[in-house]
């Protein structure tokens, strides 16, 4: 181990910040396969391993399917296990991702959100992790490199919490965060170690004194009960994510919740967004507020579990809400965030109309003017309630 | 079968707190061909025992005595690998008649 590194502020990209968080976490096992734009995360981490700065067993595998398979074996042995991927790589992991959930293995993954082929594209949208939104993973979005660093550290605590015991993915927006350099404040190595604590797995396949059967067949008699237990674990995670976020705030000065409201209290027109777009929206909101427009943002940090009560409470007072979806549920009624938000509001007596703007697929630019237009169109009554439209596409 | 458990009573991840439980799940009725043992052609090389993916070759005192047909799925690997005696197989596959 290198000597204990104290707190410092570093200029880092999102990938460097996530790799650095992994270094400070110092997991037992990392199994990964490189893919743009997430390659650097495990490449940098592999260098830490080669330089002896972590005690991690690094498993270089031949595919992402193998990466997640190795992670499952490692986590079932009771090792603190991490991986990193993106896009097609995550898609190749999907099959094993469901197994990690069913076996209740608290693997932590860094995913850099990138569009899925075809057409082939390497830039940001949220289609990759949205594609496994029903798998049972805890799913945290990051707005910037600092949040990416903070989310990785918190993800360990959330995943391993005895009432949760679910794999957790922390994401960044491809290139926008993963390759954008920002100031990132690091905790000291010992602070991170103290915060995450020792992992005490309930089971280990390597414990010969307590032999277990892992992955037994469940048919009509028991499969349903095991899947039902996942709903409880996700529900418990709502409180755990908030508690871990508060505790993280006490040591770092940066508190986290399931959502974050920005100038939303008296807002008449609100947007709901995930990831880096929230940063752009804040600037637009400040500009419009300076002109007297009552506008605000609801950022969703935890997409799974989906914090429906917080979403309801944050939005019910608005006159109109527009959801910004960076992925499309093709053939569905709007993008994934829209369907969740609208569903959360539907049962309320008092509720604003909601519309969906699907934007930014394949890294298509979302700039301040576009978000400003969404606000102004809401204000001018030009957005049809319940409508789904595409923002920034040539049509 | 004993009383089925509610979901709250299950072990984390469906783990069963003992090993060797696969033996309790009988898979032999999947078979369409069954292995037949001809001891007169057997040289006790134990290739069948090594290759069997279902641990369904039964040994007694280190000697092949036959098959566990509750678990043999009839894949035929044992018969394929069997060198036999003077090129006459000690294991042949026969169609299962039910």
Write up this protein.
Chain A has 395 residues and is of the alpha/beta class. Chain A has two domains: 8-198 and 216-252, 3-Layer(aba) Sandwich (Rossmann fold); 259-391, 3-Layer(aba) Sandwich (Rossmann fold), CATH 3.40.50. Chain A contains twelve helices and 15 strands. In chain A, the strands form three sheets. In chain A, strands 3-2-4-5-7-6-12 form a seven-stranded mixed β-sheet, with helices on both faces. In chain A, helix 1 crosses helix 2 and helix 3 (64-76) runs parallel beside helix 4 (87-102). Chain A is globular. Chain B has one domain (26-95): Alpha-Beta Plaits, CATH 3.30.70. Chain B starts with 32 loop residues before the first strand and ends with a strand. By secondary structure, chain B is α+β, with helices and mostly antiparallel strands.
Radius of gyration based on Cα positions of chain A = 21 Å
Number of helices of chain B: 2
Q: What name does the CATH topology of chain B carry?
A: Alpha-Beta Plaits
Q: Assign the CATH superfamily of the largest domain in chain A.
A: Thiamin diphosphate (ThDP)-binding fold, Pyr/PP domains
Read across the widest sheet of chain A, the strand sequence of neighbours is 3-2-4-5-7-6-12
Helix residue percentage of chain B: 10-25%
As a whole number of angstroms, the C-alpha radius of gyration of chain B is 18 Å
Please tell me the overall pLDDT of chain A. Answer: 97
Give the N-to-C terminal Cα separation of chain A.
56 Å
Unreliable stretches of chain B: none
Briefly note the structural class of the backbone of chain B: alpha+beta
Q: How many strands in all of chain A?
A: 15
Strand content of chain A: 15-25%
What's the total helix number of chain A? 12
Measured between the Cα atoms of the first and last residue of chain B, the distance is 26 Å
CATH architecture name of chain B? 2-Layer Sandwich
Main sheet of chain B?
A: 2 strands, antiparallel
What is the CATH architecture term of the largest domain in chain A? 3-Layer(aba) Sandwich
How much of the sequence lies in strands of chain B comes to 15-25%
